[in-house]
Design brief:
This protein has 18 helices and 19 strands. It is of the alpha/beta class. The chain has a 5-stranded parallel β-sheet, covered by helices on one side. A 5-stranded parallel β-sheet has the order 17-16-15-18-19. The chain has a 4-stranded parallel β-sheet with strand order 11-10-9-12. Helix 2 packs across helix 5, helix 6 runs parallel beside helix 8 and helix 13 crosses helix 15.
């Protein structure tokens, strides 16, 4: 019987069939952070249970950690410090690897796990964070779980899992100059809606997907959840397996051929049935910007706002805009570049390419927060950090930072931010703050012009001489 990639992954990890809709699913890896795990460990203690397979869990401190550029980071907020210390205590007690605040490998969980080779094709990966869909870039089924489910996974290495439907989104053609995977996913979400993939695991396919780098594929899968998807997948190819083998240094050479043979079976059969299908022409994708308070409220940077319902009216009031307004030229006071969506080295290279020889506009505060310590070091080695600092950006320590403002990186009420994050909900980046999602290159353009700007205009200009730019 023909199967989709999603069905193959579920079948290979099903411990028991519970009923027509539910299975007991085995988890190859469980990723934790400091704010979704404390109650789960408390539940284990109350029940007198231990962690079943400690070696198949890992933890990071990322959401609440301050990102100030200091050598030794101290979490000053008492509640946040307690979360971090509890995580350290729980991991030590149960023998779980932890990348703590000042660990050289610390970073955002969805950046750290792939770069350390923990994510491999064919795996099931769970985490108490919705953007676990990121791992679909490797042909791994990743998805977020709740606190009670975290406890169940710790105790049994399994999860009671409700089956999803299959959706395929085929993207063919070539992305135009100036557009990225971030623009592509905003284009898709704005087309199918914030609930357009609800109840589905989405498989991305097509020539445009095949041409994307692994970093770009992670961006795409990361934000699939913003269309309501329960998971996202891309069939692993040579590009994916090369990335994994370069990063998974623990894979013994004697096991590589067997691994590759298994990974080559991870694809949807030619006659597999999908419950829903969409087709996207990559050549029609432009640089996108969100205008409202949901990721599907997005338009090309050259477009105008045309809301059609009462929810849009509320969003317009919150962001201080009107129907029919242009998004290009809108002044910004803050720029944030980072997050598990766009905090990787490829993203920072795109930013440096735009800002090199230019300066952050007067009245704009611009921050770059690398996705991990490894990304930060690589950016410094490549000279990217030097370019950013010379242009007037704050060069911070890794962490989730202003993506969800659980530390002191936050917008003030009324501040408008060009952001590379994944959500533009009301107050997401700070109470009363206004978020416009866009690609790293678009955020860089906003930083140096002081307003939302079509990055293609800057890319078409001759590169300014550094001395002129600093004058």
């Amino acid at each position: 019987m023909a199967k989709t990639l999603y069905q193959k992954l579920v079948d290979s990890h099903t411990v028991a069939r519970l009923d027509v809709q539910n299975v007991l699913l085995y988890a190859d890896l469980h990723v934790m952070n400091e704010y979704t795990s404390p109650q789960a460990f408390a539940g284990l203690r109350e029940a007198g249970r231990a962690v079943a397979v400690p070696g198949q869990h890992m933890a990071v401190v990322d959401h609440i950690i301050p990102t100030h550029p200091v050598r030794v980071r101290v979490i000053e907020d008492a509640a946040s410090a307690l979360q971090a210390s509890n995580l350290a205590k729980n991991c030590a007690q149960h023998g779980i690897v932890l990348f703590d605040a000042n660990d050289a490998l610390q970073g955002i969980e969805h950046v750290v796990a792939p770069e350390l080779g923990m994510i491999r094709p064919g795996m099931v990966v769970l985490c108490g964070d919705s953007h676990t869909t990121t791992y679909g870039a490797f042909g791994a089924l990743g998805f977020g779980i709740g606190t009670s489910e975290v406890e169940h996974v710790l105790a049994t290495q399994t999860l009671v899992y409700r089956l999803a439907q299959d959706m395929r989104i085929r993207v063919d053609g070539q992305l135009p100059t100036g557009t990225t995977a971030k623009d592509l996913i905003l284009h898709i979400i704005s087309g199918i809606g914030a609930q357009g993939a609800r109840g589905y695991v989405v498989e991305f396919a097509g020539t445009a997907i095949q041409s994307l780098s692994m970093e770009a594929r992670m961006t795409l899968c990361n934000m699939a959840v913003e269309a309501g998807a329960r998971g996202a997948l891309i069939a692993p190819d040579a590009k994916a397996t090369r990335y994994v083998l370069e990063h998974a240094r623990d894979v013994a050479r004697t096991h590589v051929n067997a691994a590759l043979a298994d990974w080559r079976q991870l694809f949807s059969d030619a006659d597999a049935h999908f419950d829903a299908e969409y087709h996207v022409d990559a050549s029609e994708v432009a640089p996108y910007v969100t205008w409202g308070t949901s990721p599907d409220e997005a338009i090309p940077v050259t477009g105008t706002i045309a809301p059609a319902d009462t929810a849009s009216e509320r969003a317009l009031r919150y962001v201080g805009l009107e129907a029919g307004s242009a998004i290009e030229g809108l002044p910004v006071q803050r720029v944030f570049i980072g997050s598990c969506t766009n905090g990787r080295i490829e993203d920072l290279r795109e930013v440096a390419a735009v800002v090199r020889g230019r300066r952050v506009a007067a009245g704009v505060r611009a921050m770059v927060v690398p996705g991990s310590g490894a990304v930060r070091r690589q950016a410094e080695q490549e000279g990217i950090a030097e370019v950013l600092i010379a242009s007037g950006f704050e060069w911070r320590q890794p962490g989730c930072s202003m993506c969800l403002a659980m530390n002191d990186d936050a917008l003030a009420p009324g501040e408008r931010c060009a952001s590379t994050t994944n959500r533009n909900f009301e107050g997401r980046q700070g109470r009363g703050g206004i978020t416009h999602l866009m690609s790293p290159a678009m955020a860089a353009a906003a930083a140096v012009t002081g307003r939302i700007t079509d990055v293609r205009k800057l890319q078409a200009e001759p590169q300014p001489h550094p001395e002129t730019a600093h004058a």
